């Protein structure tokens, strides 16, 4: 039987197993006793079903599912968890029936390379990182006996990067059109995203109480995925964003006392509306997230400090902003260099060239 012991506010569970005639103990510590009991029940069930806890005959897909439900489901946003479900689907398709005890580095890398023939390098990087994290726990819990994951590399399709942001002219064209049109909810969501740089999940989670009309301020403290409203991406995502009088008035005029949420539309509805506007106004194609990039790029182009832009976006630090918007910062550097030379050249203390002719 499993034994439990308190470790401060955490609970440690120990399960005794036999391997090659030798009794060994497998232990794990959890934040709650319930999680500890659930894990202990699962381990005991493994023994009753003649599964070896040490080098388990559990399939890789089953273990990954158990791992993400145990360690990820309650600690990440629903939208992020959906991407783990997508990773599980790839594992089921490519590692069908393969058990943990039969996994090897070469098998893993070979199957991942096959997956990578149809997916981008960025997507494969996410899949590989999750598989590494999963198998690291499997090794810690003795479900596998060797490190077969550290050397794994993500190989995928190298796709040319397209600018997912509107130019300054396009930004102002879309902004002008939205301000001078009768807005439906999807169009208003686009305007809010364009003028605040909020993530679409943050926009769709907005309640009227989050918008302070007297102070022209939006308080961001949650995000929506489908019908689920939860915490925003991270602690830095909780922030206050200053907005214009014009935007505050539009939101105020849209107020509906029958609902606490400003937007009653889905992400796909906003996506469809944005595509329609892009076609109508002849703008370069961008995603909904491209509205956030467009907002930041526009502010940086107009000379707003990167420190403020970073805080407005909810980035943890400016290095993230610098990495994402490096192309805009290069343009700013060139512009500031030209401005510096112009200022120094007109100084009365700088000798002027004499025209000899």
Automatic annotation (TrEMBL):
Domain Tyr recombinase: 161-338
GO process terms (BP): DNA integration; DNA recombination
Start and end residues of each Core-binding (CB) domain: 58-139
CDD domains: INT_ICEBs1_C_like
Record key words, sorted: DNA integration, DNA recombination, DNA-binding
SUPFAM superfamilies registered for this protein in UniProt: DNA breaking-rejoining enzymes
Protein's UniProt name: Integrase
Lineage: Bacteria, Bacillati, Bacillota, Bacilli, Lactobacillales
Gene3D superfamilies: 1.10.150.130, Intergrase catalytic core (1.10.443.10)
InterPro entries (alphabetical): CB (IPR044068), DNA_brk_join_enz (IPR011010), Integrase-like_cat_sf (IPR013762), Integrase_catalytic (IPR002104), Integrase_recombinase_N (IPR010998), Integrase_SAM-like_N (IPR004107), Tyrosine_recombinase_XerCD (IPR050090)
One matching Pfam family: Phage_integrase
Entry GO MF terms: DNA binding
Key word DNA-binding present: yes
Matching PANTHER family: PHAGE INTEGRASE-RELATED, PROPHAGE INTEGRASE INTD-RELATED
Family recorded in the similarity comment: Belongs to the 'phage' integrase family.
């Amino acid at each position: 039987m499993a034994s439990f012991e308190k470790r401060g506010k955490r609970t440690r569970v120990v399960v005794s197993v036999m391997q090659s005639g030798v009794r060994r103990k497998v232990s794990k510590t959890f934040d709650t006793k319930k999680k500890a009991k659930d894990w202990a029940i699962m381990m005991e069930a493994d023994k009753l079903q003649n599964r070896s806890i040490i080098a388990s005959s559990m399939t890789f897909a089953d273990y990954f599912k158990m791992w993400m439900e145990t360690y990820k489901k309650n600690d990440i946003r629903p939208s992020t968890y959906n991407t783990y479900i997508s990773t599980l689907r790839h594992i089921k398709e490519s590692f069908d029936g393969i058990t943990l005890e039969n996994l090897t580095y070469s098998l893993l890398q070979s199957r991942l390379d096959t997956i990578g023939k149809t997916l981008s390098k960025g997507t494969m990087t996410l899949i590989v990182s999750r598989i590494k994290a999963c198998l690291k726990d499997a090794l810690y819990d003795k479900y596998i006996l060797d490190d077969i994951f550290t050397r794994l590399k993500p190989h995928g399709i190298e796709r040319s990067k397209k600018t997912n942001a509107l130019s300054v002219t396009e930004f102002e064209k879309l902004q002008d059109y939205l301000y001078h049109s009768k807005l439906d909810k999807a169009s208003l969501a686009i305007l809010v995203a364009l003028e605040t740089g909020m993530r679409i999940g943050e926009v769709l989670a907005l309640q009227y109480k989050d918008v302070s009309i007297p102070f022209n301020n939006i308080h961001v403290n949650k995000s929506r995925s489908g019908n689920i409203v939860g915490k925003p991406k991270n602690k830095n995502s909780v922030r206050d964003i200053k907005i214009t009088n014009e935007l505050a008035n539009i939101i105020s005029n849209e107020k509906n006392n029958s609902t606490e949420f400003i937007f009653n539309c889905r992400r796909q509805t906003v996506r469809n509306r944005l595509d329609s506007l892009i076609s109508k106004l002849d703008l370069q194609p961008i995603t909904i997230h491209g509205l956030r990039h467009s907002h930041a790029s526009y502010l940086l182009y107009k000379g707003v400090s990167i420190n403020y832009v970073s805080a407005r976006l909810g980035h943890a630090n400016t290095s993230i902003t610098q990495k994402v918007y490096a192309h805009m910062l290069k343009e700013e550097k060139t512009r500031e260099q030209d401005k510096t030379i112009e200022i120094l050249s007109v100084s009365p203390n700088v000798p002027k060239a004499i025209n000899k002719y």
